[in-house]
Amino acid sequence: MLSKLSKKTKVALLGAGLYVIIPLDLIPDFIVGFGQVDDLGVATYLLKCLYADLKKSKKARIL
């Protein structure tokens, strides 16, 4: 499965994983409301990349 992902998605997956593991945030989580915005942005970007790869894979399978 991992071999079918684009390089962009693999980098996004690695970056999101490191972002979760490393305790440094762009906006600290203790700032209620704003602290989760950067986390949500990272998750949204990762899901966007995964969705694009799945869409491309499905289209290639149909053709």
From TrEMBL:
GO terms for cellular component: endomembrane system. Residues 9-44 form the DUF1232 domain. Its main location: membrane. It comes from the Bacteria. It is a multi-pass membrane protein. InterPro entries: DUF1232. This is DUF1232 domain-containing protein.
